[in-house]
Amino acid sequence: MAIDVRSDTVTKPTPEMRQVMFEAPVGDDVYGEDPTINHLEEFTAALLGKEAGLFVPSGTMANQVAILAHTERGDEVFIHRDSHAYYYEGGAAAMWSGVTWNLLDGDEGTPSGDGLQKAIRPANIHHPRPRLLSLENTHNRAGGAAIDLRRMMSSIDVARKHDLLAHLDGARLFNASVALNVAAADLAAPFDSVSVCLSKGLGAPVGSVLVGSQAFIDRGRMFRKWLGGGMRQAGILAAAGHYALTHHVERLAHDHARALRLVEQLRAMGYHIFVPEVPTNMVMVDLPVAADVAIEALKQHNVLVGAMGPKRLRLVTHLDVDDNGIDETIAAFGRLYETFYA
Ligand code: TLP
Fold first, then answer.
1. Which of 130, 156, 224, 307 is 20 to 30 A from 324, alpha carbon to alpha carbon?
2. What is 251-340's CATH number?
3. Distance CA 342, CA 337 (A)
4. Residue ranges per domain, the chain?
């Protein structure tokens, strides 16, 4: 079998996870009658210190429901230009919410307070209504950077001064929590809404949970239905998500340690690696050749990696890559060094 480090989305449910899925009590969730989903929503909300939760099929839907529920058409949403909700969600926010993006810069995918302050314009009929700040933790395109609260608060403080709401794309919030050694609830505290993915490093097959106030979640539930995300007897999926949250959070430290080993060994070979201030489970390799060429070459050596730019590879460690998988990955990069740097 190939070593698949394209993403932590590729994990397969473990036998124990499949067992709890098999045994999960279910009901029709559109009637609010799936006990396993109700439990997951309450459990995740409590874990993140919020009033209520909403189970959705994907991280993309979680972000889009959040934007829909926080805004009116035309409103302005401030977001770093490398953030998933802008960069990787296919223009969905324009399509569903009809919002205006205001794209910000900033180190490691995180805008500064000054940057946000400069971007907010005074109320005037020529300007859209400034409404929402959206941040991301860990930050995917910034190399899986875990962002501490001090760096987050720089822009959030400015947002609050201007009565903006704040959403966190916490697809990998638990990676940030483990890497920073800060409770996920503390990282979530300054935000009105937070989305977390169960189907990335945590290893569930499907699903994300959006959390926030009861009123926000009630409104979000309506938008989830509009988007076609009301899933009926999906408790079998929620059971996997609950198992992931209760069994697969602490082990993320192993993924981080393995990513660090990749960084050290590839660097020792001469590879150029980008490492953020607080790294997690991602490794960014900068090459002198096109990423597509390198991806094909590595595939021939049984290692699947992804691209994060024309000449940048992304490797993501996860539940289904053990120490042998890391050794094999390192060996493949070793065999190809001369080809890449010829
Ligand atoms: N990210 C995927 C790709 O879409 C790039 C990956 O392989 O990393 N927020 C963040 C920060 C994400 O990284 C992702 C997925 C999502 C949201 C969307 O989640 P899904 O794929 O469940 O819609």
1. 307
2. 3.90.1150.10
3. 8
4. 13-247, 251-340
